[in-house]
């Protein structure tokens, strides 16, 4: 069991948790939710013992192992399958010791423990996890250094899942996954045999993979049974009830104040007035929790509707290396009223097609036509590809606004 008792947590002078408490039973699957910036990731660090608490305690079962997704993507010449297998430290240590042990009793202990932890079936389990996250058998044998940062983060996720810690802490694990990988992770977490807490903005994952929601709001933690949809319903019901009670209490407070002010000076009513004053002192205000206003995302309509098609391709081949196209014989048209979902297995060229449409890749052969005044908004699979790491958020937006003022452009 994970027990957070009267926890206060402060970062850079800002109080994130203020006397918060929660108990999470062993084997629970919990979604940790809350507005961006409230401190969800910081709470993970505190649970893992990576930062001190201002007050309170975090208690876990003795010798419980905590697993967190690595912040840095693995790299180097090791095969993917070996990177994942190495995440089980006990198995690695026992196998290494088995190579050098000479004492018969110790050898027997090692072999018994290896059997207890199903060490010999570990390669098959590691391969299954990697396959679920999109790595073919051939790719699992390739060096980690041959993959991009996003794919290597999938390897880090596979290693964390393979280790099967007693408490698994996952912070936005679907950031680097495609649809197939996300669906596989939902099923895997729903069957996870130990305790897991996951931070996610993926509503489907929070509905399908967890059975509790831990809400981080106003410096407090509140645990709700069920997935995200059930949590939202329960929270709205509680907010409605709190609002009604707060209004009722406000009416009662005004009635008591009016009585005291009217009869305090009268000797015949002085005792009753004193009694009302004591009631006022005991009347603790009910905090009516109202959901923070969330500004909707608005995608503005084009200033002028363009004549269809807005993009057309004719017998296009496109790729990254000369003479090695990823897609070929590509002919399609996109009209201004199309709403298209692009699906396909990993490596089939979905991102390549999007880069072609966005103007990030030029066709090797064939023709792409688009109106001169067409503006394309592009959100990359790996956002860092479109960002300057040295820019602040303000500088990045200012640069895009300056580009848009200069006239039609790709951004």
Brief descriptors of the model:
411 residues; alpha/beta; six-stranded mixed β-sheet; three-stranded antiparallel β-sheet; disordered C terminus
Radius of gyration: 29 Å
Average residue pLDDT: 85
| Unreliable segments of 5+ consecutive residues | 406-411
Terminal CA distance = 49 Å
What overall geometry do the principal axes of the alpha carbons give? flat
The string of secondary-structure elements, in order, is: EEEHEEHHHHHHEHEHEEHHEEHEH
**Major sheet, described briefly?**
6 strands, mixed
Structural class: alpha/beta
| Residues in β-strands, percent | 15-25%
State the strand order across the main sheet: 5-6-7-3-8-9
Task: Please characterize this protein's 3D structure.
- It is a single chain.
- By secondary structure, this protein is an alpha/beta fold.
- Helices cover 38% and strands 20% of the residues.
- The chain has helices at 40-47, 80-85, 89-100, 104-116, 122-132, 137-140, 149-163, 179-190, 203-208, 228-263, 270-282, 350-358, 393-405, and strands at residues 2-11, 14-24, 29-33, 55-59, 66-68, 167-171, 195-199, 212-217, 220-225, 311-321, 324-334, 365-369.
- The protein has a 6-stranded mixed sheet with strand order 5-6-7-3-8-9, with helices on both faces. A 3-stranded antiparallel sheet has the order 2-1-4, with helices on one face. The chain has a 3-stranded antiparallel sheet with strand order 11-10-12, covered by helices on one side.
- The protein is flat and about 100 Å long.
- The chain starts with a strand and ends in a 6-residue tail after the last helix.
- Mean pLDDT is 85; it is low at 406-411.
